[in-house]
Amino acid sequence: MKIDIQSFSNQYIVRRVDKNDLSKVYALCSKNSLYYQYCPPIVTEQSIIDDMNALPANKSFNDKYYLGYFDSDKLIAVMDFIMAYPDEKTAFIGFFMTDISVQNYGVGSKIIDDLCEYLKTLGLSGVRLGWVKGNPQAEHFWHKNGFKETGISYDTDNYAVIVGHRTL
Ligand SMILES: CC(C)(COP(=O)(O)OP(=O)(O)OC[C@H]1O[C@@H](n2cnc3c(N)ncnc32)[C@H](O)[C@@H]1OP(=O)(O)O)[C@@H](O)C(=O)NCCC(=O)NCCS
User: Fold this and answer.
1) pTM (2 decimals)?
2) Domain range spanning residue 113?
């Protein structure tokens, strides 16, 4: 499916970020210490590169978008987005984080709403993601944005992940 990344947002410049943007991505992530308390280990430049190169099973890089949202030059959010996963009608957010300087002003919710609006125009029926069980910030944010527990959860060595879904 052909998608237009810039249509993900009505407000911000959206583009793929890569190794050349590493210092900006690292600066954004490393300030979000609460997230890494629940989802260790703490971020490093190498872990960001690994995430940029990570793919779910049976997916290709055609459907993977490791994105930066920019307000002029300032990186304000990062999203790891997978199209058509786990099925053709569903999109998957592998990671989403805003810069702490803009948090709690509705920026994250606006980004998710704009994304959902666009995905609906493409004919998708839902968005899926996971949050670390017990992370109050992530759980509150995804609930506020219409994501409901699917009943699916899985354990990793360090934490449990709750799988949430928003119907479009
Ligand atoms: C979750 C996150 C993306 C929200 O971004 P944002 O730009 O602040 O989003 P919004 O302003 O739209 O909403 C933030 C909501 O979280 C709430 N919140 C913030 N910190 C919180 C905390 N520690 N505990 C509970 N709720 C919290 C805010 O009160 C607000 O909800 P409200 O409007 O009902 O009061 C951002 O906090 C973040 O990047 N966190 C670290 C990464 C993360 O957890 N990502 C999601 C899991 S993958």
Assistant:
1) 0.97
2) 5-124
